[in-house]
Structure prediction request, 212 residues.
Amino acid sequence: MTPVAKATNILQAETNAQIEWLLPTINLLQIKLDKVKLQLKYRRPLVNALQSGIQNRFGHMFKDAELVTAAILLPKFQTTRTMENATIKMGIDYIKQHLEDPSMQPRDATRSSSSDEYDFFSSLQASKTQDGGKQFDAYLSCSADHMDMLKSFPYVCKLSVKLNTPLPASAACKRLFSIAGLVFSPRRVRINFRHFESQLLLKMNRRFYSFK
Prediction:
């Protein structure tokens, strides 16, 4: 069940956990479970049940154009080995359609018309800027997989920011309550709330200090 544990850790991460990670993670999890199932003899029904549950819960999301688009706009995945060709085509069509929307233009592009009144040569600078479609093609051909590369494609970056919302995770809250249960032991039932809060604060932040 290692693939399930790793996929869960990715989706419930406390940092860098956006909706763009959802579909690629679920799709790759299904592929890994298919490989694991071939090596099993007695626990194969368990893997079948997991795959059936994952398909029932997340299967319909692969038909959501916004979720597919969010995955494509993550440089780590783009269109490689993440989803089926028909699903990827749906996302690409969605992107090209929305990149033509004037609201997707960066602020600098929208100010170009007003800047003509003050800068005679401003149109030369504006002509150097690629339109949304060309920027998207350049984005797909870029081999970099870090998020900073989106800054080179303002249209694509703005659409990515619009679609990629953070995934809510309760891991930090569960960790806090778990540690609070260890601090508030049966021998400390008479501790007041101020001392309890101070001990919990020290316990949670002990990695930041050292006693010598």
The chain has two domains: 2-163, 171-208. The chain has a mean pLDDT of 79.
